[in-house]
Amino acid sequence: MSLRKMKIGVLGTGEVGRAIGTKLIQVGNEVMLGSRTRDNPAAVEWSRINGERAYHGTFAEAAAFGDVIFNCTNGLFSLDALRSAGEENLSGKILIDVANALEFSDDQPILTSCRESLAERIQQAFPEAKVVKTLNFVGYEVMVNPSLLKEGERQMLIAGNDVEAKRLVERMLKEWFGWEEVMDLGDIKAAKALEMLVPLWFRVFETMGTTIFGFKVVPPHGVKDYKRKTN
Protein backbone atom coordinates (compact mmCIF):
# COMPACT_ATOMS: atom_id res chain seq x y z
CA MET A 1 0.00 0.00 0.00
CA SER A 2 1.36 3.42 -0.95
CA LEU A 3 1.91 6.07 1.65
CA ARG A 4 -1.02 8.37 2.21
CA LYS A 5 -0.49 11.95 1.21
CA MET A 6 0.31 14.24 4.13
CA LYS A 7 0.64 17.77 5.31
CA ILE A 8 4.32 18.36 5.92
CA GLY A 9 6.12 21.26 7.59
CA VAL A 10 9.62 22.04 6.33
CA LEU A 11 11.60 24.34 8.59
CA GLY A 12 14.25 26.25 6.69
CA THR A 13 14.24 28.16 3.40
CA GLY A 14 17.73 27.37 2.09
CA GLU A 15 18.60 25.05 -0.77
CA VAL A 16 17.93 21.93 1.32
CA GLY A 17 14.53 23.04 2.61
CA ARG A 18 13.35 24.23 -0.80
CA ALA A 19 14.55 21.07 -2.56
CA ILE A 20 12.89 18.76 -0.03
CA GLY A 21 9.71 20.81 -0.02
CA THR A 22 9.51 20.75 -3.81
CA LYS A 23 10.05 16.99 -3.95
CA LEU A 24 7.33 16.39 -1.36
CA ILE A 25 4.88 18.47 -3.40
CA GLN A 26 5.80 16.64 -6.60
CA VAL A 27 4.75 13.33 -5.03
CA GLY A 28 1.40 14.76 -3.95
CA ASN A 29 1.80 16.22 -0.47
CA GLU A 30 0.88 19.63 0.88
CA VAL A 31 3.91 21.48 2.23
CA MET A 32 4.42 24.61 4.29
CA LEU A 33 7.89 26.13 4.25
CA GLY A 34 8.66 27.77 7.59
CA SER A 35 11.03 30.58 8.45
CA ARG A 36 11.46 33.20 11.16
CA THR A 37 9.12 35.59 9.35
CA ARG A 38 5.93 34.89 7.43
CA ASP A 39 7.05 37.02 4.48
CA ASN A 40 10.50 35.48 3.96
CA PRO A 41 11.27 36.28 0.28
CA ALA A 42 12.69 32.83 -0.54
CA ALA A 43 9.66 31.11 0.97
CA VAL A 44 7.21 33.43 -0.78
CA GLU A 45 8.86 32.79 -4.15
CA TRP A 46 9.06 29.04 -3.53
CA SER A 47 5.36 28.95 -2.72
CA ARG A 48 4.49 30.90 -5.86
CA ILE A 49 6.51 28.58 -8.09
CA ASN A 50 5.17 25.35 -6.59
CA GLY A 51 1.47 26.09 -6.82
CA GLU A 52 -1.62 25.48 -4.77
CA ARG A 53 -0.20 22.80 -2.43
CA ALA A 54 2.77 25.01 -1.44
CA TYR A 55 2.42 27.36 1.53
CA HIS A 56 4.74 29.55 3.56
CA GLY A 57 4.64 30.79 7.13
CA THR A 58 6.56 31.10 10.36
CA PHE A 59 8.35 28.20 12.03
CA ALA A 60 5.40 27.85 14.41
CA GLU A 61 2.83 27.88 11.61
CA ALA A 62 4.74 25.28 9.57
CA ALA A 63 5.19 23.02 12.59
CA ALA A 64 1.50 23.27 13.47
CA PHE A 65 0.57 22.58 9.84
CA GLY A 66 2.67 19.45 9.42
CA ASP A 67 1.79 15.88 10.31
CA VAL A 68 5.53 15.33 9.85
CA ILE A 69 8.26 17.97 10.27
CA PHE A 70 11.60 18.29 8.46
CA ASN A 71 14.34 20.30 10.18
CA CYS A 72 16.33 21.84 7.35
CA THR A 73 17.58 24.88 9.27
CA ASN A 74 21.21 25.84 9.80
CA GLY A 75 22.31 23.36 12.45
CA LEU A 76 24.03 26.07 14.48
CA PHE A 77 20.61 27.62 15.08
CA SER A 78 18.30 24.60 14.83
CA LEU A 79 17.44 24.48 18.52
CA ASP A 80 16.44 28.16 18.48
CA ALA A 81 14.34 27.58 15.36
CA LEU A 82 12.62 24.56 16.92
CA ARG A 83 11.92 26.48 20.13
CA SER A 84 10.36 29.16 17.95
CA ALA A 85 8.30 26.44 16.26
CA GLY A 86 6.90 25.54 19.68
CA GLU A 87 7.15 22.35 21.68
CA GLU A 88 3.38 21.94 21.50
CA ASN A 89 3.58 21.87 17.68
CA LEU A 90 6.28 19.18 17.69
CA SER A 91 4.96 16.91 20.41
CA GLY A 92 4.04 13.43 19.18
CA LYS A 93 5.17 14.16 15.61
CA ILE A 94 7.98 12.67 13.56
CA LEU A 95 10.76 15.24 13.31
CA ILE A 96 13.20 14.38 10.52
CA ASP A 97 16.51 16.09 11.24
CA VAL A 98 18.52 16.80 8.10
CA ALA A 99 20.72 19.50 9.63
CA ASN A 100 24.37 19.62 10.69
CA ALA A 101 25.91 21.96 13.26
CA LEU A 102 29.13 22.98 11.51
CA GLU A 103 31.68 25.70 11.94
CA PHE A 104 34.61 26.28 9.60
CA SER A 105 38.29 26.77 10.39
CA ASP A 106 40.73 27.32 7.50
CA ASP A 107 37.84 26.41 5.20
CA GLN A 108 37.54 23.00 6.86
CA PRO A 109 34.27 21.89 8.53
CA ILE A 110 34.30 21.23 12.26
CA LEU A 111 31.39 19.69 14.16
CA THR A 112 30.47 21.92 17.08
CA SER A 113 30.18 18.94 19.43
CA CYS A 114 31.83 15.53 19.34
CA ARG A 115 30.07 14.40 22.51
CA GLU A 116 26.47 14.73 21.37
CA SER A 117 25.03 15.02 17.90
CA LEU A 118 22.63 17.77 16.96
CA ALA A 119 19.89 15.14 16.68
CA GLU A 120 20.55 13.95 20.24
CA ARG A 121 20.34 17.51 21.52
CA ILE A 122 17.08 18.01 19.66
CA GLN A 123 15.65 14.80 21.13
CA GLN A 124 16.67 15.90 24.64
CA ALA A 125 15.15 19.36 24.17
CA PHE A 126 11.90 17.96 22.70
CA PRO A 127 11.41 14.57 24.37
CA GLU A 128 7.86 14.13 23.00
CA ALA A 129 9.01 14.50 19.39
CA LYS A 130 10.05 11.40 17.44
CA VAL A 131 13.41 12.50 16.07
CA VAL A 132 14.82 10.59 13.10
CA LYS A 133 18.23 11.52 11.66
CA THR A 134 18.78 10.98 7.94
CA LEU A 135 19.79 12.59 4.61
CA ASN A 136 22.31 14.90 6.31
CA PHE A 137 25.45 13.44 4.71
CA VAL A 138 24.64 13.90 1.01
CA GLY A 139 24.17 16.99 -1.13
CA TYR A 140 20.67 18.37 -1.49
CA GLU A 141 20.49 17.31 -5.16
CA VAL A 142 21.15 13.70 -4.17
CA MET A 143 18.79 13.86 -1.17
CA VAL A 144 15.78 14.26 -3.42
CA ASN A 145 17.09 12.53 -6.54
CA PRO A 146 19.24 9.49 -5.70
CA SER A 147 18.79 8.32 -9.28
CA LEU A 148 21.77 10.60 -9.93
CA LEU A 149 23.80 7.80 -8.33
CA LYS A 150 24.64 4.47 -9.91
CA GLU A 151 21.81 1.95 -9.79
CA GLY A 152 22.29 -0.51 -6.96
CA GLU A 153 24.37 1.97 -4.94
CA ARG A 154 21.58 4.21 -3.61
CA GLN A 155 21.67 3.58 0.12
CA MET A 156 20.55 5.89 2.92
CA LEU A 157 21.20 5.56 6.66
CA ILE A 158 18.83 6.48 9.49
CA ALA A 159 18.88 6.63 13.29
CA GLY A 160 16.26 7.30 15.94
CA ASN A 161 14.62 5.98 19.09
CA ASP A 162 11.11 5.33 17.79
CA VAL A 163 10.96 2.17 15.66
CA GLU A 164 7.58 2.91 14.06
CA ALA A 165 8.71 6.44 13.17
CA LYS A 166 11.81 5.04 11.47
CA ARG A 167 9.76 2.57 9.47
CA LEU A 168 7.56 5.40 8.17
CA VAL A 169 10.61 7.51 7.33
CA GLU A 170 12.12 4.49 5.55
CA ARG A 171 9.01 4.25 3.38
CA MET A 172 9.21 7.98 2.63
CA LEU A 173 12.83 7.66 1.61
CA LYS A 174 12.07 4.75 -0.71
CA GLU A 175 8.64 5.62 -2.13
CA TRP A 176 8.87 9.40 -2.34
CA PHE A 177 12.58 10.12 -2.68
CA GLY A 178 13.71 6.99 -4.54
CA TRP A 179 16.34 5.50 -2.22
CA GLU A 180 16.76 1.79 -3.01
CA GLU A 181 17.96 0.69 0.41
CA VAL A 182 17.73 2.16 3.92
CA MET A 183 19.94 0.90 6.73
CA ASP A 184 18.78 1.46 10.31
CA LEU A 185 21.79 2.16 12.52
CA GLY A 186 19.82 2.04 15.76
CA ASP A 187 18.84 4.61 18.36
CA ILE A 188 19.42 8.35 18.31
CA LYS A 189 22.98 7.95 19.62
CA ALA A 190 23.89 6.65 16.15
CA ALA A 191 23.12 10.11 14.77
CA LYS A 192 26.60 11.11 15.91
CA ALA A 193 28.08 8.73 13.34
CA LEU A 194 25.86 10.17 10.59
CA GLU A 195 26.94 13.70 11.42
CA MET A 196 30.61 12.66 11.53
CA LEU A 197 30.29 11.66 7.88
CA VAL A 198 29.90 15.33 6.95
CA PRO A 199 33.60 16.30 7.22
CA LEU A 200 34.33 13.26 5.04
CA TRP A 201 31.71 14.49 2.57
CA PHE A 202 33.51 17.82 2.26
CA ARG A 203 36.87 16.09 1.68
CA VAL A 204 35.39 13.84 -1.03
CA PHE A 205 33.75 16.89 -2.61
CA GLU A 206 37.11 18.68 -2.73
CA THR A 207 38.74 15.60 -4.25
CA MET A 208 36.04 14.78 -6.84
CA GLY A 209 34.91 18.31 -7.62
CA THR A 210 31.23 17.33 -7.55
CA THR A 211 28.46 17.01 -4.97
CA ILE A 212 26.87 14.10 -6.83
CA PHE A 213 28.00 11.14 -4.76
CA GLY A 214 26.88 9.12 -1.75
CA PHE A 215 28.14 6.64 0.80
CA LYS A 216 27.26 2.98 1.05
CA VAL A 217 28.00 0.18 3.53
CA VAL A 218 29.27 -2.78 1.49
CA PRO A 219 28.44 -6.19 3.03
CA PRO A 220 30.70 -9.22 2.94
CA HIS A 221 30.47 -11.45 -0.11
CA GLY A 222 27.36 -13.61 0.00
CA VAL A 223 25.49 -11.49 2.57
CA LYS A 224 22.29 -10.08 1.07
CA ASP A 225 20.98 -8.12 4.03
CA TYR A 226 21.87 -7.05 7.52
CA LYS A 227 19.90 -7.89 10.61
CA ARG A 228 17.65 -4.91 11.23
CA LYS A 229 18.05 -3.15 14.53
CA THR A 230 14.92 -2.67 16.60
CA ASN A 231 15.87 0.46 18.53
Overview of the structural elements:
Helix 1 links the parallel strand 1 (7-11) and strand 2. The chain has helices spanning 15-26, 41-50, 59-65, 78-85, 87-90, 118-125, 140-144, 163-177, 191-208, and strands at 7-11, 30-35, 54-58, 68-71, 94-97, 102-105, 108-111, 130-134, 155-160, 181-184. Helix 3 packs across helix 4 (78-85). The model has no long low-confidence stretch (mean pLDDT 93). By secondary structure, the protein is of the alpha/beta class. The two termini are 24 Å apart. It is globular, with a radius of gyration of 17 Å. It has an eight-stranded mixed sheet with strand order 3-2-1-4-5-8-9-10, with helices on both faces. The longest helix is centred in the last third of the chain and has 18 residues, at 191-208. Helices cover 38% and strands 20% of the residues. It has a single domain, classed as Rossmann fold, CATH 3.40.50.720.
